[in-house]
UniProtKB/TrEMBL annotation:
PANTHER family: D-GALACTONATE DEHYDRATASE-RELATED, STARVATION-SENSING PROTEIN RSPA. Pfam families: MR_MLE_C, MR_MLE_N. This is D-galactonate dehydratase family protein. SMART domains: MR_MLE. It comes from Mariniflexile gromovii.
Length: 405
């Protein structure tokens, strides 16, 4: 089954998405997500100039060989741009294989290990009161796990909440230049424990809670936070410290039993290896889109399982529904699945471009048994929403120093 053509679409159906479609001489096609938020067109160019010409005429069934060819064959292995490109090709090839076999991708991975996928919802607010009222709604909606983010007084606009779009922790498709947000570690560390104390005092310990630090602390600050939060029994603290120097997590581990999640920015299993084999983290958050596709994510899951590390894939709104559905298949299969990040099923314009069927019931997602990944991409609808340049924000300390956003 030969690859005859590969098309790349960029559309802004609410926010920018890069979609790859692989066509074959048997009339079967597959789709993949190549979205790299804020750097979308770099991936398009990488695909069009450097990947697609090499794949025309290749056998679409040779998923592993094509992956190795694109990874090792480039000589310049890994990096966010190239791994997003490889990830989309790989996902599209799994989609094709599933369609040819007449099976959902989770069956090709080894079948279901559970009835459905437990997700964590986003609960945000501009004040603790607002977070608690949104938490009450999330509990009433049946969620078993939620992530709490609250505006830190004096650092308005920072990650996790936004004044004008309270249900979205990130603005969409309308930042032609990066906005700048203030950050104060002192204000943050003084505030966050109170949020979790109030949540536990009000709702008890029946609901599982997480929090995303978004890489803004040093290891010892993160250790301090983890220790302070211990009485509130978090499921995990995410991205406590930026991942480049994994030994930072050793410092955290030496001081606190609060579980750690990391990995939404990992591009390969190598980014995770040291952290996992030293058991510095508890959940690995790598996405199909940024981690090079389904092929390496299956390897990552199996490797992580040797060290009691569970999968908690990234599920932010900048990952397209193709990535979301690819995660559903991995999550259903992975014996060491932990929890899936979930931001809802999206807006009408998003669903017009990406059509998929999934049902949320009591905090768990059920998918239909469609062959392949289970997403239909509407090319005509995509053309209606042209690309708009849009950046992620940047953070600065109160004295103007650039910080991790
Ligand atoms: C998350 C992530 C996102 C990222 C976003 C960047 O936990 O969902 O941290 O919110 O900021 O994916 O593009
Ligand atoms: Mg995160």
């Amino acid at each position: 089954m030969k690859i005859t053509e590969i098309k790349v679409f960029v559309c802004c159906s609410g926010r920018n998405f890069v979609t790859v479609k692989i066509l074959t001489d048997k009339g079967v096609y597959g789709i993949g997500d190549a979205t790299l938020n804020g750097r979308e067109l770099a991936v398009v160019s990488y695909l069009e100039e450097h990947v697609i010409p090499c794949l025309i005429g290749k056998d679409a069934h040779q998923i592993e060989d094509i992956w190795q060819y694109l990874y090792k064959g480039a000589y310049w292995q890994n990096g966010a741009v190239s791994m997003a490109a490889i990830g989309a090709i790989d996902t599209a090839l799994w989609d094709i294989k599933g369609k040819v076999a007449g099976l959902p991708v989770y069956q090709l991975l080894g079948g279901k290990s559970r009835r459905a996928v437990t997700v964590y919802a986003h609960v945000n607010g501009e004040s603790i009161e607002e977070v608690l009222s949104n938490l009450e709604k999330a509990i009433a909606d049946g969620y078993k796990v939620v992530r709490l983010q609250c505006t830190i007084p004096g650092t308005e606009g920072t990650y996790g909440t936004l004044g004008d779009k309270k249900n979205y922790y990130e603005l969409q498709g309308n930042r032609p230049l990066p906005p700048e947000h203030p950050w104060s570690t002192t204000k943050y560390l003084n505030f966050i424990p109170e949020l979790f104390k109030r949540a536990r005092d009000t709702f008890g310990y029946g609901i599982e809670l997480c929090h995303d630090v978004h890489s803004r602390l040093t290891p010892i600050e993160a250790a301090q936070l983890g220790k302070t939060l211990e009485p509130f029994k978090l499921k995990f603290l995410e991205d406590a410290v930026t991942y480049e120097n994994p030994e930072g997590y050793k410092i955290i581990r030496n001081h606190t039993t609060t579980p750690m999640a990391l990995g939404e920015k990992f591009n390969t299993i190598w980014d995770a290896k040291h952290l996992i084999e030293n058991q510095y983290i508890d959940f690995v958050r790598t996405a199909v889109t940024h981690g090079g596709g389904i092929t390496p994510l299956k390897k990552l899951a199996d490797f992580a399982s040797l060290y009691h590390v569970r999968m908690a894939p990234h599920g932010a709104p900048d990952l397209s529904p193709i990535c979301f559905m690819a995660h559903m298949h991995l999550d259903l299969w992975a014996p060491n699945f932990g929890v899936q990040e979930f931001i809802g099923f999206g807006t009408p314009e998003l669903n017009e471009v990406f059509n998929f069927q999934a049902q949320l019931k009591d905090g768990e997602i059920y998918i239909e048994d469609k062959p392949g990944i289970g997403v239909e991409f509407n090319e005509e609808a995509a053309i209606k929403y042209p690309y708009k340049r849009s950046y992620l924000p940047v953070s600065r300390l109160e004295d103007g120093t650039l910080w991790n956003w």
